[in-house]
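Thread: "does anyone have the structure for this chain?"

Original post by V.I.:
We have the sequence but no experimental structure in hand. Need at least a predicted one for the grant figures.
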Amino acid sequence: MHIDILTVLPELLESPLSHSIMKRAQEKGLLTVEIHQLRKWAVNEYGQVDDYQYGGGAGMVMMCEPLVKAIEELSVARTYDEIIFLTPDGEQLKQKMVNTLSLKENLLLICGHYKGIDQRIRDHFVTKEISIGDYVLSGGELPAAILVDAIGRLLPGVLNDETSALFDSFQDNLLAPPVYSRPVDFRGWKVPDVLMSGNHRLIEEWRHEQSLQRTKERRPDLLDNQ
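Reply from O.Q.:
Generated one for you, tokens below.
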């Protein structure tokens, strides 16, 4: 998979995508992430990519021209399955959406900043708008990093145990069950006997029951979507 990211603050993305699982995914050649400084396509020698909004009001708006030039130039090298704008008023990111995006080959992410991007970019170029939650951040860089991480870990060969992702929270609209590791007894707090039984059928039944119970207690709204 290839992901291009347009941003005015590439420094915010370099660290999250250069360590741990995302680092391994790129080293294995399973994921390529290219971060592009939008000011490369600025409208003048001062690196301007934003201007005042028509109609007045506080906050600057990212201009059409730099974004169009960037999108069209990058589109020469590859055809994008989705051009994604990270925005608080987009569709909320869910695991089902991540699963679908992980099957794509080429994605372009646009990180908004200031007051946002000119609506004409959204109307004529953006194919999908994504929000990571009902709150506002300083820009789209951190949401972009979250999206790349969520997608990248699902790519075949990225995780050492590929079945691990299948049992993550939200994959079945259920939260993940409790997990335990050594020692069996710590300060009198013991691992449930069923997990020590070696009976895989009973273990899977216990895990499903625990997932269902946890979801009912913490996220009953998820069960309404089943």
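V.I.: this helps a lot. The radius of gyration is 21 Å.
O.Q.: and The chain has eight helices and nine strands.
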